[in-house]
Fold:
Amino acid sequence: MRCRSWGRYPKTTETLKSLRWSTDPLPANDGLKVLPHGLGRSYGDVCLNQSGTLLVTAALDHLLAFDEQNGLLRCESGVSLDEVLRFLVPRGWFLPTTPGTKFVTIGGAIANDVHGKNHHRAGTFGCHVTQFELLRSNGERLLCSRDKNADWFAATIGGLGLTGLITWAEFKVRRMTNAWIEMESIKLDDLGDFFAITRESDHDYEYTVSWLDCMAKGKSLGLGIFMRGNHAKAGVGDLAPHGEPRLSIPLDFPSFALNGLSIRAFNTLYYARLRQRVTKAVVHYNPFFYPLDSINAWNRIYGSRGFFQYQFVVPFSVDDGAIREILKEIGDSGQGSFLAVLKTFGDIPSPGLLSFPRPGVTLALDFPNRGAETFRLFERLDQIVLQAGGRIYPAKDARMSAATFQASYPLWRKFTSYIDPAFSSSFWRRVTS
Amino acid sequence: MTIKNALIIGASSAIAQAVARRLASRGTALVLWSRSAARLEIIAADLRVKYDAKVFVEAFDLNDASLHQAALDRALAAQGPIDLALICHGNLPDQSACEKDFAIVEQAFRINCLGPLSLLTVLGNYFESQGRGCLAAISSVAGDRGRQSNYVYGTTKAALSTFLAGLRNRLYPKGVRVLTIKPGFVDTPMTAHLKKSPLFAAPNKVALDIIRAVETGACVLYTPWFWHWIMLIIRLIPEKIFRKLKM
Structure:
């Protein structure tokens, strides 16, 4: 059967098998390599397994225990953040950190060690995982925590689903008094603005993120909007969870729909929407954290050729040279689409061996797939990232070279010894060949 | 009718789980029967955590008719009088395997037909003495007409549907409702190997239809609704023509 990741590239063919119960054994080994597959929201090929088996975890959708004293939720690995929020929010709890979509599973959140707008305060999702069960292809079930099977715990967080199947996991959740966020949007005139406001905000604001106009060049390089927010004070709003997505993209857009002109127009409008330099608002958590979740299948606007998301992190430096260089390279290429997301990572270490975030600046940007031209741009960006001592996020990647991966994730060799012999992925074969 | 207490048999099926979640979310207490204790534990944990539901579970071989009465007695002792009993257990035998090996046909009848008939007998008598309640069982549109692609499964469900019709007739004057549920294609593990089409419905949608049909006292439920019209047409085709069709 054909399966697609969110970026709809690469196009692969896999055998789909469904695991019905977390207590069931893994399907019989038929010689094909296996990869657990949740909601397929990774952009590239970490959730794909060309000519192999995808083990679909959708049926593992049960909550198992909620310890209200200590704020600990235990659930099966196929439960989505969407379902977790529907459970937590009315009871006055929230996720410890969340990525930009709620349509990912707990298993996927751990396997990719996802991060969110509060990384500078909370670290990655893996930082809040207290324990999980890892089912290996030899039938062994390992209970993993920071104390028990700690090496397997570290290898599995950010382990891209390769160490075995996470059947269930337990993680810490946080209190909140209502479902609303008090946020401020601040206009950024240039990149210097971003770093200045980041420094000023990281202490007082739990959530920070910026959207940059990647078409901006020269003096306006770094033109954008800085957004910062905190959970609203008691009495500001209710504890109503989010609703269903309202819009849907019913068909693939033709490939010419997104071009330099349409993107420039969108970005200009997006920026001009804000009249004042600082705009304050109280917004529900759903549009604040998940603006794109309100449109089903938004990836179809990039057409059937698909798209890439390029996300990297580079360590902090005095002159922010790498970020400037990359923004200039993207601006000159004219290939970047819509808005780039820029954020600083804090120094809370993840337990994960292959975890992506590290202290520094991270930038994420979508690129429609224009073939060789796009790949050449990425190669140039890779070089700048590598030279700055940075790295690329596997959950978003579909094309980095083995040399790039191995140079930027030096622990990959150590990680190899934890890979289940029956497991593999398209991504892993690509970056280790 | 309001459903305060429900018994779900074959509770680990996808449709059964969807019904259990929907009922539990409205405060219905549940008795769940299934073959596997481990699965029941997971299902019950989910219902308790999410809905603070009162759940009583028991694992045993549902096809063993000798266990049915005693299990019902224990359920009544634990949870009190039952308003709704829903039989969900069944499987989809491989038609081509059935054609080569009659043992598989027999097995399909034990699971889809004989087990449910025993349950319906025991539960029918219970509801008759109680003088109220709803007895519902999941049959299938496949039971409406024999087709080459799945006539063994269809025959088991046809027998079940006929039995339910008779039971409905018998229990109606006693104030007991009997509901025959005929789902079309439902996107569940039972149909995981089939190619998906727009005709496939989500278990949640089917669960919603079932509960509504129980509440309104319906006799036969086609779910989703359009199967009523599809099956009407299929039943009306003369056998002389039907025998030539590839269905």
In short: Chain B has one domain: 5-242.
